[in-house]
User: Fold these one by one.
Assistant:
Number 1:
Amino acid sequence: MSIDWESIGQVNFDRVIEALILRRHRGTNARVRAVNGRGGDSGIDIEVIDDGRLIIYQLKYFPGGFSGGWRTRRPQIKESFETALENDPDVWTLVIPSVATTPEHNWVRALAVRDGPEIEIMDRDELDNLLADFPDVDRWFQRDAMREYAELYGQERACLFGGIDDLAQRVQGLGGVVDSTDPDWTFDFARVGDCTTWSLRPQHERAHINSPVSLRVAGDLEKLPMEARETIDRAILYGTSDAIAIPGAAVTAIHIEGPKFIAGDHPPADVRLERLSDTPGVGKLLELRLFDTNGENIASHEGCVTHADIGTAGGSIEGKFCDERLHLKFLIPFEAVRRDEPTRVKVGAHMTVDLSRPGRPVVVQETLALARLVRFAPRIEVHIDGQLVTSVTQVPGIAADNDTDYLIIEQLAEDLDIVQRYCGQFFDLPAEVTFKERVELRVARLLVQGHIVAHPGAKELAFSLDGQDSEELRVDLSTPRLLVLRMPSDHEITVGGRTLSLGPVYVIDPAATPVNGAEAIAALDRGEGNGFVVRVRPATNPYFCLALANKPAEELDLRQQAMWSLIGVDQPQAPGAPAAEAS
């Protein structure tokens, strides 16, 4: 029988490792010392001085490792390593109960510093090898284990000789015992590794009335990240739906008042509190009206109330908008409840945008447009079922790092929505769009809106001579001239693998110039003009312009030329032309 390192618990893990390290260095002149107070030991758990070299074993009982959902353990390892450096060790060894993955090995080795100690990892595989070298430690730990289990539970089934079915029956039986301890409250419980989690649950809807439960948690919140402290403040002060999560490391005491089976003082542990919102406002129509600096209503959006409650300093209203892609929290202090007194909050600090789900362009565009307005609108009115609840005034938000990315996506979504409506083709906004597709989509949008616009793919035209010769043809081949040419095929663009057809277009330039006009005239002189390919380019503009051919060419003068005006894109201009500004 071998030790199950991931289930023996912190105390047993420390004792077994200490015994193995003592035996590993037995028979040498090494001095081995286990440091008392694991976790607060100046970065040392076991110290070995061997021939003048200092070896530090850092014990971290981390079942499951320190990747994935356990990445939060990494700062503890790093802190222990940095603290150990103060002792100038020659070797620093991390001891863990699980098999270290390759990324975990790489992460630990990356802690290395110049002129620092050698870094090693002693994981489950090496611990098993040490047990094989020192089987007496294994026998000592496993001594009479099965007999002790049977004596403890007083029945053969307690050893789970019946397999998983026995486990299920015992868990169900234990759950029934827990349910019977109190008529109003019960516990749901779970065990993962050496961690046991229990959650208080009402057995009926009047449990909190018949048997109120209060919880007092003492601790040092300064140990928590700023974001976590702000979340706790919002939940307590304004009653938001944010879950309160306090790790056991920041808890010094827990006191519960309520039913006898849970009342009293409890040792520090992880604490998680979630608020259940069942107020009458949940599910009602939530409307935002946004105003500019002149007091003009610039937009209105409707959503749904998802949470409404009060805390110690005020209340909160939360809602979802744009097919649940945008979530907002409004914090309303008690002193600002009167409708004629605006609430001063930074709304942008309590807004979440979720673009992870596929969606139609119009929904994505509306989501990002609303998010932008919420951050920068000077005043927002909040209405529930048509009734004004509060008016929010705010200092316009500071531009965030992702603002440019969001604006680009907003432009893209708006362009695609307009083109889709024109073409009668509808699909979700693609997850990836190339730079070329983005520009061509903007060109298509401007064409649909009736503009003349430069196309980046229209740098040169080519046509073949038919062998006929005339003075007029020779003039056209030697001088720039107005070009209005209806293309024989429909104009198409591709976005995210889908093809959208806009119909026929005109190619336009006020001074189209033959690039090889002299060669064409020479071919005519030789009688070799038939089939000669003439290349034509714009005289001053970098690209030819396009216009939809849905009206006679004579009406092109009524159309205006439009710039791309794309964020992050500099549209090439003719020499001396003013630069385009994105809008």
Number 2:
Amino acid sequence: MTEYDRLRVNRLWTNYLSMSHSQCINPTLYDEL
């Protein structure tokens, strides 16, 4: 993997983590569980 690919994957992973994190905090999602 080149350095560019590594940065791109890192950014995608960070976006995914922040997205799932905000969903976890969402109270409406808690009600559905």
